[in-house]
Design a protein that fits this description.
By secondary structure, the chain is α+β, with helices and mostly antiparallel strands. It has 5 helices and 13 strands. The strands form 3 sheets. Strands 1, 2, 3, 4, 5, 6, 10 and 13 form an 8-stranded antiparallel β-sheet that branches. A 3-stranded antiparallel β-sheet has the order 9-8-11, with no helix packed on it. A two-stranded antiparallel sheet has the order 7-12.
Length: 241
């Protein structure tokens, strides 16, 4: 199954993986059923407000952490806390400053689902590149839509992250419309569009070769909270002396 994903990613530079296949993959890697992981999923209920929104928006909550992997087949290591930084070349809205987001909590770090996702990414991307040394960043996001206002999953617009590969995992959609993922080539031609709907729906993107974005979300029932929760994992090859 991983071989098929590697082949599809190598050919198309992105792969959409449906929830059932993701759960099967993670269960195989973890050696335990991944149909649900309450500890993993519940951690999105304890995110903190993003204080770095240059558009003045209050629709995004998040947490952040950094990992390292020192070779294909090696386990990921949690690194000491460090800020998230993007140049304005990659993020014209919020780039150019070191952003000190709230750190990811211990219960997520101890999750079998997270460990399996990191091992999965290392396996796929190491086969693609022939290199298994990675700088990894985790981003927990909750994007909210309320009071008639849209929530913007990618307020910087269609973009690249300045890494090698990106994994986006759907956690939960509640009372929202839209939130479609769009994929563009380097000539800004649309090459893919789909919506992550179910928990553990997932997309892998070659960030060197494609742009990606997500359309704004809107609230369906005005009397009920509305949000989109995702985990974004970025893999960047480390320079090895």
């Amino acid at each position: 199954m991983i071989t098929d994903i590697v082949e599809r990613l190598a050919a198309d530079d992105f792969v959409f993986v449906e929830s059932a296949q993701t759960s099967e993959l993670l269960s195989t890697i973890a050696g335990a059923p991944m149909d649900s992981d309450p500890v993993f999923l519940d951690s999105w209920n304890r995110l903190e407000q993003d204080q770095y929104m240059a558009d003045g928006g209050h629709y995004r909550k998040r947490r952040h952490a950094t990992y390292a992997i020192d070779g294909a087949g090696q386990h990921a290591r949690l690194m000491p806390y460090q800020p998230h930084y993007q140049t304005v070349d990659y993020n014209q809205l919020n780039g150019g400053v070191a952003r000190y987001f709230a750190p990811i909590l211990d219960d997520l770090h101890q999750s079998l689902s997270l460990a399996a996702l990191l091992e999965f990414g290392n396996s796929v991307f190491s086969q693609i590149t022939g290199n298994g040394h990675w700088h990894i960043e985790l981003h927990q996001f909750r994007i909210e839509a309320r009071d008639g206002r849209m929530g913007k999953p990618t307020p910087e617009g269609v973009h690249r992250d300045g890494v090698d590969f990106v994994i986006v995992v759907m956690i939960k959609r509640v009372n929202i419309d839209s939130g479609a993922t769009t994929i563009y080539d380097l000539e800004n031609q649309l090459v893919g569009e789909f919506t992550l709907r179910e928990s553990f729906d997932m997309v892998l993107v070659n960030d060197r070769k494609l742009y990606h974005g997500v359309t704004p979300i809107t609230q369906l029932d005005a009397d009920t909270e509305a949000f989109r929760d995702v985990l974004v994992i970025t893999f960047k090859l480390k320079n090895i002396a």
